[in-house]
Amino acid sequence: MNNGDLNNAKKCIQDLSNTIGISPKDDTLEILLKSSKVIKYEKSSIIPNKLLNETLCIVINGIVRYFTNYEELEDQTLRFTFSNEILSLHTDPENREEQLQAISDCTILTIQYNILDETSKQNELLETYINRITFDKLKYEIYLLRINPEERYKIFRKRYNHIFLLIPLKYIASYLNITPQALCRIRKRLIQKDKQK
Q1: Which one, 14, 47, 70, 130, has the greatest CB density within 10 A?
Q2: Phi, psi for 78 (deg, rounded to 5)
């Protein structure tokens, strides 16, 4: 790991510890840092599902898209993970239904689960945290499915306004379960409404 990666990894582990409420001792932090790896994925790369089965993965920087790819259907974007968030699958990692793709160049910090178990008796806090994040994302996604496309877009834009220049609109449309053309019409209609105010 080079110095930049080491500093990013250290900050990432400290941020995660603070968020979860774990106060790792310095030696624990050092053990985690020494056993962690930083993996870089270029834009459009597929990230292997098995990585999430064996390691805790935190996106240091970049955006990851989760999608399904059935041969008879187009890709369906399921969710996104952004910088400083944990990657987590909602299906069995061996199952190829859900796939991960780097939307931008990504740097991912990986920590072996067995190292986490050895170094922290507070692993239950980590598991609770991951389950809560997963539940919150699923709750948000279910809510989006229950409202009309224009409201879906408004909520998504409000929550993730910073990413519209980073994610292709076809993926945002897919995530919102509308066509790219419908997304363009919605955006145009909302711009016109804003101009009338």
Answers
A1: 47
A2: -95, -40
In this structure, are strands 37-41 and 106-112 parallel, antiparallel, or unpaired?
A: antiparallel
> Measured between alpha carbons, how far is residue 22 from residues 13, 44, 92, 120, 183 in Å?
10, 34, 27, 9, 42
| Torsion sign over Cα 148, 151, 157, 160 | negative
Between CA 103 and CA 92 the distance in angstroms is 22
DSSP state of 136: H
Residue 47 carries which DSSP code?
E
Give the chain's length.
Answer: 197
Return the beta strands (E) in 46-181 as ranges: 46-47, 55-61, 64-68, 76-81, 85-86, 98-102, 106-112
Integer CA distances (angstroms), 186 to 33, 168, 183, 197, in order = 46, 16, 5, 17
